[in-house]
Amino acid sequence: MIRHLIFALFFGVQTAAADVWTFETPSENIQCSVGEGRDGSDITCTIIERNGPPALPRPAGCQQDWGHVFSMYHRGPVQMICSPLDRNRDGFDRAEYGITGQFGGFTCHSSRKGLDCRNLDGHGFFLSRARQQVI
Questions:
Q1: How many domains is the chain built from?
Q2: Among 2, 36, 63, 133, which residue carries the largest CB count within 10 Å?
Q3: Measured distance CA(27)–CA(103) in Å, rounded
Q4: What distance in Å separates the CA atoms of residue 16 and residue 4, rounded to the nearest whole number?
């Protein structure tokens, strides 16, 4: 319960019945969804508009959009997902710049430079329009 309260205070969101939260940066260019279950948690963030090459090379079988969707569990490495890009910018609560939230095994910091999210193992990603990086 305290985890949910901390998340709500930092990111201004409310938990759903399935323990899924969503938030976006003030630019509305980065949108994230966090799920928390009995066996762990996961986060998926999408950067809608980006410049430069993708953070990782496109897999041979990827015929969809690449370089926009980043996902990780509370432990383990980041994965980039090959999927159609959803450019919808509605329905997400705002993670104001300068805010750091800790929730579900993740720490995310929203700043004017971008969004930095890390898991318990120190894996993570940094997303901004100018640069995307897998850590």
A1: 1
A2: 36
A3: 22
A4: 10
Residues spanned by the domain of 14 = 2-134
Q: Report the distance separating Cα 116 and Cα 111, nearest Å.
A: 8
Q: What is the pLDDT of residues 63-114, one digit of tens each?
A: 999 999 999 999 999 999 999 998 887 778 898 999 998 888 999 999 999 9
Confidence of residue 3 (pLDDT cuts 50, 70, 90): very low
Residue 6 parent element (H or E): helix 2-11
Question: Tokens 């959803």 belong to which residue?
Answer: 86
The answer to pTM > 0.70 is yes
The burial class, CB within 10 Å (0-12 / 13-18 / 19+), for 125 is buried
Q: How far apart are CA 107 and CA 71, in angstroms?
A: 14
CB-based contact 34:18 (threshold 8 Å): no
